[in-house]
Amino acid sequence: MKVICDRAALMDAINLVSSAVASRSPKPQLGCIRLTASKANGAGDLTLSGTDAEIALKLTLTQVDVQKPGEALIPADKLKSIVAAEEGEPTLTIEVDDDICHIKGADAHFKVFGYPANDFPPIPDFAGVVAGNMGEPKAKAVMTHPAGSLAQLVARTSFAVARENSRYAINGVLMKRDGKRLEMVATDGRRLALARAALSGGDKDAKAVSCIIPTKALGVLQRLIASHDEPVQIAVTDAQILFSFGTAGSPGRAVLVSNLVEGSFPPYEDVLPKDSDKKVTFDRDVIASAVRRAALLTNEESRGVRLAFKSKGKTLELSSRAAEVGEANIRVDVTAYEGDDLEIGFNPQFIVDAMKVIQDPEVIMELKAPNKPGLIKSGTDFLYVVMPVSLT
Fold first, then answer.
1. How confident is the model over 109-126, as a mean pLDDT?
2. pLDDT for 39-69, tens place per residue?
3. Which DSSP string corresponds to 3-59?
């Protein structure tokens, strides 16, 4: 194999693919990146692949001159370090002979010992999964959605995922397709985020399908987005989900594969408050600023912030108190308030997290009682349920 690569493009690709490479593994091949150089009709490309046995990523570079097609399996850390160190070079030449990789710049020559390319575990082929051939399990659902909208769904939910919980099923984000509607849901048991979008070109009669996606895979997915309008093809099997970035119907410039989280997601519809009798409309930035300031005088023992809603004058008073720390009192106006006065406590970080992912400047909060969950809404496509905390 021999290719001449644009160094900057190669560096970007290595950084992305490295996120799928195993940092520690008894199999040294999982700490490697596979390079596959191919050439057809005068044009060449270089595909970089990495996997940690849970997720896998294939990324194709076209900014290359393929002089000799072939494959190589190179330790990812060494490849990354060398390409990063040659920052002054516009191009680098990669030549492989008998599992030995030679990386050459204008004044440097690096010799890296690799492994046989066939030692790398196979990565599912997206077209094969869609068609159910090439020995791949056939997808039970296939859909296409713009990258920007998909990224927004992920951003609006993944922050609420449980980081450490024995209930493994909530350590991921539920994705549910029902007809032309696509939903993502995440919860850690104390809050729940739900985001919706209309599938572009979706079939209203399509069979409902759902799966739980690990947060690591969703983090890689967000890094892969180059254009908000780029179509992303999604295929779901019983055990995996595949994302193909690029023109619909083509292999795509990048393919991300992830194992699914096993288990059943909690029945989230049951926790959405439906009998709230108090409704607050407020400015997103005003409430976010007020909550952040009130949270300055909290500590581990007294983490909550008290929110006192006053119907008279349409005001919100926020206060916090921590022993040996001090007190904070903030007063802001709300746009509208319907219902009786109410005092309720919330973890301030939970409120701030929600404000960060809401684009609309106006936000609605629905409440019932001090011991009942609050519901934050932004339009019809974002719901956020947050449990109150005791302030006594």
1. 95
2. 987 788 999 999 999 999 999 999 999 999 9
3. EEEEHHHHHHHHHHHHTTS-SS-SSGGGGEEEEEEEEETTEEEEEEEEE-SSEEEEE
Residue 28 to residue 50: CA distance in whole angstroms: 12
Q: What is the CA radius of gyration of the chain?
A: 25
pLDDT at 282: 95
pTM of the model: 0.92
Instruction: Please give the Cα distance from 50 to 75 (Å, whole number).
Output: 10
Give the burial string for 212-229 (b: 16+ CB within 10 Å, else e): bbbbebbebbeebbeeee
**Amino acid 64: pLDDT:** 95
% of the chain beyond a pLDDT of 90 = 79
List the domains of the chain with CATH numbers. 2-119 (3.10.150.10), 126-269 (3.10.150.10), 272-386 (3.10.150.10)
